[in-house]
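Section 3.1: Structural characterization of target chains.
Under the original work plan, the team committed to producing a structural model for every single-chain target entering the pipeline before any wet-lab resources were allocated. The record below documents one such target. The sequence was received from the expression subgroup and is listed exactly as submitted; it comprises 202 residues.
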Amino acid sequence: MARNIIKLGALEAPKTAFLLCDIQEIFRPHIKYFSEVVKVANKMVEAAKHFQIPVYVSEQYPKGLGHTTKDINIGEAAMVYEKTKFSMVTPELEGRLKKDVPGLSSIVLFGIECHVCIEQTVIDLINMDLSVHVLADGVSSRSLMDRELGLKRLQSIGCFVATSENVLFKLMKDKNHPAFKQISKLNSQPTPDEFGLTKSSL
């Protein structure tokens, strides 16, 4: 019997949602490689338009911590919502996902912080029997140790730790995809080598 290809890491655009977690301007001075995380978030937000994938944006306690950095264009996000819990998975988000993405099977997740909000979101999503892909070039923390150990824990609980380019090519599947040129242009932006992913994180 064939195995479930989604559980092996494949992605199908009509059954996928993007989650952008707490990339708020106030965190810029404290998060390692904040600017790189912003670049990847913009890449994914733009790619979402070509794949017709909804983007859901959380903001952690915006009354006290402010809103998503203006460097990310979230004007066409399916939903921007505030939260106080660390996980992005709230009743509001669950309701919108069920409504917007029938047959939802996969989540692509990026934002901050890797070892707190990202990790707790992954735990909740996997508990919902969803396949979760976290972008190693799209997440970070205040400490690189926390980021590195967070990525290792995510892998150990069954999350796919990938890069933005890897995920976008999985969604595209074929060079004859109508958005091939646009996505290839987005992928021409280099992944920051400083993250040292191939050397120590995995």
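Residues 197-202 have pLDDT under 50 and may be disordered.
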